[in-house]
C-alpha cells in the first residue's frame, strides 16, 4: 500500500513538473455567421497545431448584438486577448483607451508592404493610430442575376443610376411578385442611400462623404434634392413595399429567390451566394455611375485588435499575424467572401481575378469614375446618425416627410456636430 | 417587542439579498441617468443633472410618437390578452377528452422566448415570402401581398396581434387556477334561484376571482410595457418609428448611440410611469371588495 502511495505521488509530481503549460487566448468575433465561424475555427485549429501549448477560446455573440457585447467586455476589462473590430465600431472602442497601439508590431511585420494600398491608413481613422490589423476589405458592388435579366430581354447590367432605375422598372411586375432592386430599409441602410445620393455629385471630399470639396454639407446642396427624389422613386417604382423593413437577410433572400435581381452588397455576400446559387447564376458589376459620371464607394474594413489589459499581447499578435499571412488570408477571404488585404493574394489565387470579382476589379482599375471616400466614423454622433437617417429616410419613403424637410433635418444634424 | 425583533432578524438575510439584487441596480440606474456615461466618454464621466431628460423630452422629434405607441401597445395588448385568456380559461375549466393535450398546445407560446417569437413572426408576416400572405392568397381572401410590417398603419396592429397571441396563455393559466377555486355550491345555489350563464358569470365568477384579475392585469401591464422582445424581433421599432415603444427606444439608444446614461434616462421614465400607474390602479381597484 505504501509503495502504491509513493508511486502515485511520484506520478502526480511528474505530471505537474513535466506537463506543458497551456495558454488560453480569448478571442471574440463580431461577424459570426454559419458561413464564417467554421472557417475561423479551421484557422484556429491550424494555429494551435503549429503552436503547441496555445489554445484559442472563441466567443461568438450573435451578429446583431456583437458590437455591444464587445464594447461592454472591453470596457469592463473582461478577459480578452484578441478582439474583432469593424470600421463602424473602431472609434468607439479606441476612444475608451483600451486598445493596444499596434504600430510597433506592424512596423516589424515583413508583410506590411504587401498590404493593399490605403487599407492601413483607412484603419487608422482614430487619431491616426492603427488599433487593428485589417483581415478583410469591404467595398460595395452591384450584384446581378443574368438569368432573370435575360428573361426580360435585358442583356447587360445597369451602368448608370438612371439605367438602374429603368432596368429595375422594366423588371417590376408586382402582380407576379417580381421587382427590380433589392432595397435596404433598416439595419444600417446608410451605406445604400449614401451611394445613390453622392453619385449625383462630382466634388465629394475624399476624406468625408458628407462634405463637398469646398466644405459644404452635401445635404444643403440642390443636387441632394434631385438625388433623394431619385432614391424615393427607386423605392416606389422598383422595389417591394416591404423592403422598407429589409435588412441584410431579407435583401439577400430576395436576391437568391430572384424577386429582386439587382443588389448592392459587400463581397462577404459571395460566401453565402456561392452556396445557394449555381455558378454563373449571379455576377458582380461596378456600382452604377451617377448623373455626375462618378460614384463614391467607401473602403470598409474589419480586423483584429488587442486589448491593452491582455496578458498575452505577443501571442495575440502572433495569431493576428498568422491570419494576415498571404496563405491564410487567401483561404479566409475565399471561404468567407471579404476582399483580401494583401496584394499578393490577388495574383497567386486566380479566384480573385475570376468573373465573380469583375465588379471590384473594374472599380479599382478606374479611379477617375470610382472615387473612394470616407464616412465621418470618428464623429461621436455617428451611431446616432444611423438611427436618425434610417427613421427620417423611412418617413420620406412613406410620404410622411418631404424631401426638402428631410434634407434640412440632415443638414442641421451635421451642423450641430460641427462637422468639418 | 422581542417577537418583532426576532421576526426582523429572520427576515434580515432576505432583505439584504433583495436590496442587493433589486435596490442596488435600480439606484445605480437612476444615478446613471444623471451622468454622461457613453461609449465615447469613458474618460470624463460626471454629473450633468437633467441634461439627458432634457434631450429626451425636447430634442427628440419622435418622442411623443413613442409615448403614444407605448400607450397603444399596452392598452390593446393587455385588453385582448385578458378577454381572450378569460374565454380560454372558461372553456378549459370544463373537463373534456384530450384536455391535457389541448392545454399543452394552447400554452406553448408562453414557453418560447419573446425575441424568437418576434423573429419567427417577422418571417411569417413578411410581405414577400411570408406564409400568412401565401395562405391568404391561396384561399382567395386577398389578391396581392399585404405589407403587414412595412405599412405603418398595419405594423402596430401586427405586433400587437402577435403579443396578444403570446400573452393569452398567461392570463388563461392564472384565471383557470382562480376559476377552479370558486366553490360549486355558489353556482348550485344560483341555479336554484334561476340564474342564467351570464348572471352567474358577472355576479359570482368575476367578483370571486377579482383579486386574481387585479393582480394579473397589474403584472401584465408592467411586463407588457417592459417587453420589447417581440417588437425588436419583428420591426426594431420601424418603419419610421411607427412601432417604437419606450422599451425599444431604450434598446436602440444603447444599440445605435452607445449612450448608457441616456438609455438609463429612458428607463427612469418607464419606471416613473409604471410607478404612477401602479399607485392609481391599486387605489382604484382596492375600493370594492368581493363579499358573500
From TrEMBL, chain A:
Q: Name one Pfam family in it.
A: SBP_bac_1
Q: Which organism is it from?
A: Petrotoga sibirica
Q: Which domain of life does this protein belong to?
A: Bacteria
Q: Which InterPro entries match?
A: Bact_solute-bd_prot1 (IPR050490), SBP (IPR006059)
Protein name (Swiss-Prot/TrEMBL): Carbohydrate ABC transporter substrate-binding protein (CUT1 family)
**Annotated SUPFAM superfamilies:** Periplasmic binding protein-like II (SSF53850)
From TrEMBL, chain B:
**Keyword terms of this UniProt record:** Cell membrane, Membrane, Transmembrane, Transmembrane helix, Transport
What GO CC terms are in its UniProt record?
Answer: plasma membrane
Question: Which GO biological process entries does UniProt record here?
Answer: transmembrane transport
- Where is this protein chiefly located? membrane
Q: Where is the ABC transmembrane type-1 domain?
A: 67-281
Q: Which residues cross the membrane?
A: 7-27, 73-91, 103-124, 154-179, 263-282
Location of this chain's protein in the cell:
Cell membrane
Q: Does the record's keyword annotation contain Cell membrane?
A: yes
Give the record's membrane topology: Multi-pass membrane protein
Database matches in InterPro entries: MetI-like (IPR000515), MetI-like_sf (IPR035906)
Protein's name in the database: Carbohydrate ABC transporter membrane protein 1 (CUT1 family)
Amino acid at each position: 500500500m505504501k509503495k502504491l502511495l509513493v508511486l502515485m505521488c511520484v506520478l502526480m509530481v511528474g505530471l505537474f513538473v513535466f506537463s506543458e503549460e497551456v495558454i488560453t487566448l480569448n478571442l471574440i468575433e463580431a461577424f459570426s455567421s454559419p458561413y464564417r465561424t467554421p472557417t475561423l475555427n479551421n484557422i484556429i485549429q491550424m494555429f494551435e497545431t503549429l503552436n503547441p501549448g496555445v489554445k484559442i477560446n472563441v466567443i461568438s455573440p450573435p451578429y446583431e448584438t456583437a458590437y455591444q457585447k464587445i464594447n461592454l467586455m472591453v470596457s469592463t476589462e473582461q478577459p480578452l486577448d484578441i478582439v474583432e473590430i469593424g470600421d463602424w465600431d473602431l472609434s468607439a472602442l479606441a476612444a475608451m483607451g483600451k486598445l493596444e497601439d499596434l504600430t510597433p508590431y506592424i512596423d516589424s511585420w515583413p508583410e506590411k508592404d504587401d498590404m493593399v494600398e490605403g487599407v492601413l491608413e483607412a484603419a487608422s481613422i482614430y487619431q491616426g493610430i492603427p488599433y487593428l490589423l485589417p483581415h478583410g476589405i469591404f467595398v460595395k458592388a452591384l450584384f446581378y442575376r443574368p438569368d432573370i435579366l435575360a428573361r426580360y430581354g435585358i442583356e447587360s447590367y445597369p451602368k448608370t443610376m438612371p439605367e438602374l432605375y429603368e432596368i429595375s422598372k422594366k423588371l417590376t411586375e408586382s402582380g407576379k411578385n417580381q421587382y427590380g432592386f433589392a432595397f435596404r430599409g433598416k439595419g444600417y441602410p446608410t451605406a445604400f442611400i449614401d451611394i445613390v445620393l453622392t453619385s449625383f455629385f462630382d466634388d465629394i471630399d475624399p476624406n468625408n462623404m458628407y462634405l463637398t470639396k469646398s466644405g459644404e454639407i452635401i445635404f444643403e446642396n440642390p443636387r441632394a434634392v434631385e438625388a433623394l427624389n431619385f432614391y424615393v422613386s427607386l423605392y416606389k417604382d422598383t422595389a417591394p413595399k416591404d423592403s422598407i423593413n429589409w435588412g441584410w437577410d431579407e435583401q439577400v433572400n430576395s436576391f437568391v429567390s430572384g424577386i429582386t435581381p439587382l443588389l448592392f452588397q459587400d463581397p462577404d455576400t459571395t460566401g453565402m451566394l456561392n452556396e445557394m446559387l449555381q455558378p454563373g447564376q449571379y455576377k458582380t458589376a461596378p456600382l452604377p455611375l451617377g448623373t455626375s459620371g462618378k460614384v463614391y464607394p467607401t473602403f470598409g474594413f474589419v480586423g483584429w485588435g488587442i486589448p491593452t489589459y491582455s496578458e498575452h499581447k505577443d501571442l495575440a499578435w502572433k495569431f493576428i499575424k498568422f491570419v494576415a499571412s498571404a496563405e491564410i488570408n487567401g483561404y479566409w477571404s475565399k471561404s468567407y467572401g471579404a476582399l483580401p488585404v494583401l496584394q499578393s493574394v490577388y495574383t497567386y489565387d486566380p479566384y480573385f481575378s475570376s468573373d465573380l470579382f469583375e465588379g471590384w476589379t473594374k472599380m479599382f482599375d478606374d479611379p477617375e469614375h470610382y472615387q473612394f471616400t470616407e464616412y465621418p466614423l470618428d464623429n461621436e454622433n455617428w451611431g446616432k446618425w444611423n438611427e436618425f437617417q434610417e427613421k427620417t429616410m423611412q418617413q420620406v419613403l412613406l410620404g410622411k416627410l418631404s424631401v426638402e424637410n428631410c434634407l434640412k433635418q440632415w443638414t442641421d444634424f451635421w451642423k450641430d456636430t460641427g462637422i468639418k | 417587542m422581542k417577537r418583532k425583533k426576532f421576526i426582523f432578524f429572520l427576515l434580515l438575510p432576505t432583505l439584504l439579498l433583495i436590496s442587493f439584487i433589486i435596490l442596488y441596480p435600480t439606484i445605480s440606474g437612476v444615478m446613471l441617468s444623471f451622468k454622461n456615461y457613453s461609449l465615447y466618454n469613458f474618460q470624463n464621466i460626471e454629473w450633468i443633472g437633467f441634461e439627458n431628460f432634457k434631450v429626451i423630452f425636447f430634442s427628440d422629434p419622435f418622442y411623443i410618437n413613442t409615448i403614444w405607441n407605448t400607450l397603444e401597445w399596452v392598452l390593446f395588448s393587455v385588453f385582448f390578452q385578458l378577454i381572450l385568456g378569460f374565454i380560454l380559461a372558461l372553456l378549459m375549466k370544463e373537463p373534456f377528452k384530450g384536455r391535457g393535450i389541448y392545454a399543452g398546445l394552447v400554452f406553448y407560446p408562453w414557453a418560447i422566448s419573446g425575441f424568437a417569437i418576434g423573429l419567427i413572426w417577422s418571417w411569417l408576416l413578411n410581405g414577400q415570402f411570408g406564409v400568412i400572405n401565401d395562405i391568404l392568397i391561396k384561399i382567395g381572401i386577398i389578391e396581392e401581398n399585404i405589407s403587414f410590417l412595412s405599412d405603418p398603419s398595419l405594423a402596430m396592429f401586427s405586433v400587437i396581434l402577435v403579443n396578444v397571441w403570446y400573452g393569452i396563455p398567461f392570463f388563461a393559466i392564472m384565471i383557470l387556477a382562480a376559476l377552479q377555486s370558486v366553490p360549486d355550491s355558489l353556482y348550485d345555489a344560483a341555479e336554484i334561484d334561476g340564474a342564467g350563464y351570464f348572471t352567474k358569470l358577472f355576479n359570482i365568477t368575476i367578483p370571486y376571482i377579482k383579486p386574481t384579475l387585479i393582480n394579473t392585469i397589474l403584472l401584465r401591464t408592467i411586463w407588457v410595457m417592459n417587453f420589447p422582445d417581440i417588437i425588436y424581433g419583428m420591426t426594431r421599432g420601424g418603419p419610421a418609428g411607427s412601432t417604437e415603444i419606450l422599451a425599444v427606444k431604450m434598446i436602440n439608444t444603447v444599440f445605435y448611440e452607445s449612450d448608457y446614461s441616456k438609455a438609463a434616462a429612458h428607463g427612469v421614465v418607464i419606471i416613473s410611469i409604471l410607478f404612477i400607474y401602479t399607485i392609481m390602479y391599486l387605489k382604484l381597484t382596492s375600493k370594492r371588495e368581493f363579499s358573500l
